[in-house]
Write a structure and sequence with these properties.
Elements: H1 2-40, H2 47-60, H3 62-68, H4 73-94, H5 96-112, H6 118-138, E1 140-144, H7 151-156, H8 162-171, E2 183-188, E3 194-202, E4 205-213, E5 216-223, E6 227-236, H9 241-247, H10 252-262, E7 276-286, E8 289-303, E9 306-312, E10 318-319, E11 340-343, E12 363-366, E13 372-374, E14 379-387, E15 392-398, E16 403-410, E17 412-413, E18 420-421, E19 426-429, E20 441-447, E21 450-452, H11 468-484
Antiparallel strand pairs: 1-2, 2-3, 3-4, 4-5, 6-7, 7-8, 8-9, 9-10, 11-12, 12-20, 13-19, 14-15, 14-18, 15-16, 16-20, 17-19, 20-21
Helix pairs in contact: 1-2, 1-5, 1-6, 2-4, 2-5, 3-6, 9-10
Bound molecules: zinc ion.
């Protein structure tokens, strides 16, 4: 921002210097013209010396000049002849000799070169610039947009009528959409018309609108290019993997992806203090500062002397070093670690008291109340319900047109019906609700609505989902990630 203020000022400065130059050159011409005509016909041409005198006084009176510096050059040029014309009658009649004296001094100076001596020129320039700047500062405005602001509301703060914003928006409709937090900086010209407007659209973009002629603005779009860099972040786990990755600046989504990708190889929650990890990230930088945008390309973790990797393929999914599936297909059980089966799947099971056949349509895992239930495959939650006289709290998830899974006796569901979930996400905490003789998780696997044995069913979708070429690319990528993530 400050830089643009400065640029704008510099531009103004340059402009006024050019104006001053034009002014002095015009003056010089008048002087020479005057002299020549004097030499030729001294008595008959009273007009020209009069011009010179008038012009000369203006030039030698800095305060007067500086106030003119903010007017446009065309007006300034027009002013000199206009004034002389107006005054010619009175001057030519009175002090002809005095004028001659004055003109001679001026001619001496002009003869040294085509402009004022450097010192004088600098002094005049400084005065012009100072006056110009002082004037500018009083006419520059800045504002941070709040919700609901329209351009006219913003410009109104400097006393501009709606017309200005209408003209701007007619040419540049994007100005209709100001957003909260954006900054606007603008300058009014000497006639209190909008001359320059700088709209900081985002960290990466600003748009500048400059008055070219009455009612016409030119636009300039400045965009800052960001750079994407690969970085390797290394550390030792302190607290949890989540906390450690968070400390490195990874966001929750990225951490979830990595946890999901890793938890099929290693129990992420068992990772402990001192386990090493290294993460390969591609991050966006703007002016050497992180923008917060980034992607996790790979992670390497060591636990009990074994290395575990999750490496992203071009399809966005994470795989181990061999390109084997990590997050796709069905996991055998909906639990993070192996649990004892307290009652197997059994379509012919008999009730121990009544002796009647009561098929056991699922498998019971003996797990303490509060054990996380992990979704074994991507799916959509079909139902979250409660049956006091039976299943207790239970959840049904649909994984495709063909497959469903069911979870019963839960203590706490963590999802809602309709939610779309990825394999590996926690959907509930196990419990002992409904008709149940102890803490356990009852898990069913349905194919076309019919319960099958979850422990023996041929699980669908266990290939990597990568074609041959994709897989080849992945293996190259994995090799390079492995090299970068060495401890
Ligand atoms: Zn059961």
């Amino acid at each position: 921002m400050a830089q643009h203020v400065k640029l704008a000022r510099d531009r103004r400065k340059r402009k006024s210097r050019i104006k001053a130059m034009i002014f002095f050159v015009a003056l010089f011409c008048l002087v020479i013209g005057g002299l020549l005509s004097l030499k030729h016909t001294a008595e008959n041409t009273p007009l020209d010396p009069a011009d010179n005198l008038d012009g000369q006084y203006q030039a030698l009176t800095p305060t007067q000049s500086s106030t003119q510096s903010t007017t446009s050059s065309t007006e300034e040029n027009a002013q000199v002849p206009a004034k002389t014309h107006h005054q010619q009658g009175s001057i030519d009649a009175t002090s002809y000799d005095d004028e001659l004296l004055g003109i001679d001094d001026e001619v001496d100076q002009v003869d040294l070169g085509d402009k004022l001596p450097e010192d004088a020129q600098n002094a005049v320039d400084d005065l012009l610039a100072a006056a110009d700047q002082a004037k500018r500062i009083s006419d520059q405005f800045s504002y941070t947009v709040v919700r609901g602001d329209k351009l006219k509301d913003v410009l109104e703060m400097s006393g501009l009528e709606d017309e200005t914003s209408q003209i701007l928006i007619a040419s540049y409709p994007e100005l209709k959409n100001l957003k909260a937090g954006q900054q606007i900086y603008w300058i009014l010209d000497n006639e209190n018309e909008l001359e320059y407007l700088n709209w900081l659209v985002s960290e990466k973009e600003e748009r500048i609108y400059e008055l070219k002629e009455k009612g016409k603005f030119a636009r300039q779009i400045l965009e800052k290019k960001s750079i994407w860099k690969k970085d390797v972040l290394k550390g030792k786990i302190e607290g949890s993997l989540r906390a450690s990755l968070n400390k490195l600046g990874l966001d929750n989504r990225q951490i979830n992806q990595l946890s999901t990708a890793l938890q099929w190889q290693v129990n992420v929650s068992s990772l402990s203090k001192g386990d090493n990890f290294a993460v390969l990230v591609t991050r966006e930088y703007l002016d050497n500062k992180l923008t917060g945008q980034g992607n996790v390309d790979a992670i390497h973790i060591t636990h009990n002397g074994t290395s575990y990797y999750a490496i992203q393929a071009d399809n966005g999914r994470y795989y181990n070093r061999q390109g084997e599936t990590i997050g796709k297909g069905f996991a055998r059980t909906p639990l993070q670690r192996q649990a004892r089966i307290s009652s197997p799947f059994n379509p012919a099971r008999r009730h121990p008291v009544t002796g009647r056949v009561r098929p056991h349509k699922g498998v019971d895992f003996a797990v303490p109340i509060g054990t996380p239930v992990i979704l074994p495959a991507d799916g959509v939650v079909e139902k979250v319900a409660y049956q006091a006289g039976g299943a207790g709290r239970y959840i049904v998830v649909r994984h495709s047109r063909v497959y469903q899974t069911v979870y019963m006796h839960l203590s706490k569901p963590l999802v809602r019906a309709g939610q779309s979930l990825k394999r590996g996400e926690r959907i509930a905490l196990s419990g002992n609700t409904g008709i149940s003789t102890g803490a356990h998780l009852h898990y069913e696997f349905h194919i076309n609505g019919r319960a099958v044995n979850p422990m023996t069913v041929k699980l669908p979708g266990t290939n990597s989902g990568m074609g041959d070429k994709e897989r080849k690319n992945f293996l190259v990528k994995a090799k390079s990630a492995e090299r970068l993530l060495k401890f």
